[in-house]
């Protein structure tokens, strides 16, 4: 394989050769009913238990049950794991496990020459070949000669392995994903105990199904061990990571944990008012499990009711949270404007997906930055925070909570489908390292003295411009808030033009003040001589980092920076942008951050934009970076097909 870094000597007898690899990318693909997401998840858990660094990319149809055997019905799960730090789920799989003709056809174009293909031959019937668009059986010609092809009757061997349990042929064949998992677990030396324990627990109430899946898993392992078809076993050593306690975590799970942590650190009960929507629903599912932390979850009848309930919870002194995706943000926009006007803490989680409208419900996209920035009537500024990786969703949720509570404002937290469903090893934080968030509730009257003292709900903290937060029922602090414009300080309804101008400017100034308490943007520019800066936000962090690494490996200078805070921007961002001759902004949209940077800093930002429902590819991005570096340096730069250098710079 391309990623091989050498091998051990083959031992005598019938023992198989063991090759040492530094990384490998595996993709499981099949019909949406073949259990590919479960298979990939179990392989990932085995890999996490082994100690490799890893990044995953689940990819599945939007339909609950897409047409069987068709290209739109293909579901896949990709895992990239290594003995060193990695940043992406990988561009091109080294191994493809294809359960039917459609899975082979849908994924073949992503493979590099020499990749390993393991095909379940059982479903390569004339009918299934036609469904997948094949005129002839690709396994019988020479069209796959450029790959290391292994044709295996996974279904047939699975049925044979589990026949003692008396299952129907249909039920028995469903265990083929566990046979494939067992085979791949043998090939790459994955520990098997996590999977057998998982199966025993998951199917504890149906012993025959439990035992059949375990038997199929073990049969796959034994097949790899005994067959001559697979002559080599591969070893990827554990990665060296900073000391700490690690677990594998998805973005949605990390985000849910981060919201709980924010609740604990602020001392505020967490209330989630939400409506299920892909790909954000797992946040509701997870938070509903944590009543012991004072979490209340409310599945509302629609998006508007969900955010309305969350605002009501904030008014009552709770940490109000609502979760959704792009279509839900559109529906919640007026209510978010209400939270801006009333100046109440509210965390709005937007797990972005392809749009517009229903769009691509199960695919990723950085679709909603401009909607988060401007998607409300009137001047209604809202802080925006974006995590860069699945594990970073935890820290981003804590930060969104800090800003919302400290500054009395709704905060948009922009995750996306790639982060939400993808996973990576996550270092469990030490509680003492988390910020303390002080809600600083108002407890006494704040205007006037003696018998004439009053509580004014719109007097402001001099440092943050936040208004006081008084819990309803606090004696003497009765007040009224609502959606109509407020008089400065006293908070009564005001239609005075000068007051409206002042309040609009004050709300903007409050958001601007947040820049005083967020970190300056850091630039990764090892030599300090780069003329090109690549800047991104959100989940483009991995592809940008991998692309930059490849350009540097080729011997060229390029700087990298990444934005967590998108409103307000870090206070030194303008100065950083002016240091570089050229600025490249990769995004999974048509240039939303580019537009903001151009408008605010008058920088000639160059967009690198793909809207495919998939993460950016590091290899393609490396070529774009190289081309811009060549323009800035006045040289010709060529990178190899996979981003590796083929020629040093020349004039």
UniProtKB/TrEMBL annotation:
A biological process term (GO) from this entry: response to oxidative stress
Pfam families: PFOR_II, POR, POR_N
Domain Pyruvate flavodoxin/ferredoxin oxidoreductase pyrimidine binding: residue ranges: 271-485
Listed name of the protein: 2-oxoacid:acceptor oxidoreductase subunit alpha
UniProt superkingdom: Bacteria
Coiled coil: none
Location of the Pyruvate:ferredoxin oxidoreductase core domain: 530-593
Record organism: Nocardioides glacieisoli
UniProt-listed Gene3D superfamilies: 3.40.50.920, 3.40.50.970, Pyruvate-ferredoxin oxidoreductase, PFOR, domain III (3.40.920.10)
Keyword Transmembrane helix: no
Chaperone keyword on record: no
GO molecular function: magnesium ion binding; oxidoreductase activity, acting on the aldehyde or oxo group of donors
Residue stretches making up the Pyruvate/ketoisovalerate oxidoreductase catalytic domain: 33-220
């Amino acid at each position: 394989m391309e990623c091989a870094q050498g091998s051990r000597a083959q031992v005598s007898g019938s023992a198989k050769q063991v090759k040492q690899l530094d990384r490998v990318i595996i993709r499981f693909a099949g019909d949406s009913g073949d259990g590919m997401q479960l298979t990939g998840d179990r392989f990932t858990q085995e890999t996490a238990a082994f100690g490799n660094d890893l990044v995953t990319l689940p990819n599945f149809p939007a339909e609950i049950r897409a047409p069987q055997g068709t290209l739109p019905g293909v579901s896949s799960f990709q895992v990239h794991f290594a003995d060193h730090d990695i940043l992406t789920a990988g561009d091109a799989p080294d191994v493809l496990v294809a359960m039917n003709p459609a899975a082979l056809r849908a994924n073949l174009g992503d493979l590099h020459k020499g990749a390993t293909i393991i095909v379940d031959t059982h479903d390569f019937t004339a009918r299934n070949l036609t469904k997948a668009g094949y005129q002839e059986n690709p396994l019988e010609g020479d069209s796959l000669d450029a790959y290391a092809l292994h044709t295996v009757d996974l279904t047939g061997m699975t049925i044979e392995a589990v026949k003692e349990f008396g299952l129907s042929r249909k039920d028995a064949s469903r265990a083929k994903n566990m046979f494939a998992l067992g085979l791949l677990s043998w090939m790459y030396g994955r520990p098997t105990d996590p999977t057998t324990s998982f199966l025993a627990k998951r199917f504890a109430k149906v012993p025959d199904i439990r035992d059949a899946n375990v038997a199929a898993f073990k049969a796959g392992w034994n097949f790899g061990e005994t067959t001559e078809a697979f002559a080599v076993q591969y070893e990827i050593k554990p990665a060296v990571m900073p000391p700490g306690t690690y677990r594998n975590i998805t973005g949605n799970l990390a985000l849910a944990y981060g919201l709980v942590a924010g609740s604990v650190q602020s001392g505020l009960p967490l209330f989630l008012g939400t409506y299920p929507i892909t790909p954000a629903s797992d946040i509701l599912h997870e938070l509903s499990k944590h009543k012991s932390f004072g979490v209340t979850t409310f599945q509302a009848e629609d998006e508007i009711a969900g955010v309305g309930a969350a605002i009501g919870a904030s008014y009552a002194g709770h940490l109000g949270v609502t979760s959704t995706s792009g279509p839900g943000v559109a529906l919640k926009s007026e209510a978010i404007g209400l939270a801006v006007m009333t100046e109440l803490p509210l965390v709005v989680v937007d797990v972005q997906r392809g749009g517009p409208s229903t769009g691509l419900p199960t695919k990723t996209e950085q679709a909603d930055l401009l909607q988060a920035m401007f998607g409300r009537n009137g001047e209604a500024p809202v802080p925006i925070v974006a995590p860069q990786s699945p594990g970073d969703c935890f820290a981003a949720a804590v930060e969104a909570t800090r800003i919302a509570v400290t500054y009395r404002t709704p905060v948009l937290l922009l995750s996306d489908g790639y982060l939400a469903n993808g996973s990576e090893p996550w270092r469990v934080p030490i509680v003492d390292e988390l910020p303390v968030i002080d809600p600083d509730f108002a407890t006494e009257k704040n205007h006037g003295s003696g018998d004439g003292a009053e509580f004014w709900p719109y007097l402001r903290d001099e440092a943050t411009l936040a208004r006081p937060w008084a819990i309803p029922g606090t004696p003497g602090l009765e007040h009224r808030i609502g959606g109509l414009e407020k008089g400065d300080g006293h908070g009564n309804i005001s239609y005075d033009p000068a007051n409206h101008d002042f309040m609009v400017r004050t709300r903007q100034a409050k958001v601007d003040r947040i820049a005083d308490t967020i970190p300056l943007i850091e630039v990764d520019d090892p030599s300090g001589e780069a003329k090109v800066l690549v800047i991104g936000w959100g989940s483009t962090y991995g592809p940008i980092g991998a692309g930059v690494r490849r350009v540097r490996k080729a011997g060229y200078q390029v700087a990298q920076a990444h934005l967590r805070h998108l409103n307000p921007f870090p206070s030194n961002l303008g100065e950083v942008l002016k240091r570089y001759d050229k600025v490249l902004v990769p995004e999974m949209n048509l240039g939303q951050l580019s537009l903001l940077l151009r408008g605010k800093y008058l920088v000639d930002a160059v967009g690198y934009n793909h809207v495919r429902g998939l993460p950016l590819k590091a290899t393609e991005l490396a070529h774009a970076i190289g081309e811009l570096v060549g323009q800035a340096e006045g040289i010709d730069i060529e990178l190899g097909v996979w981003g590796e250098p083929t020629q040093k710079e020349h004039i």
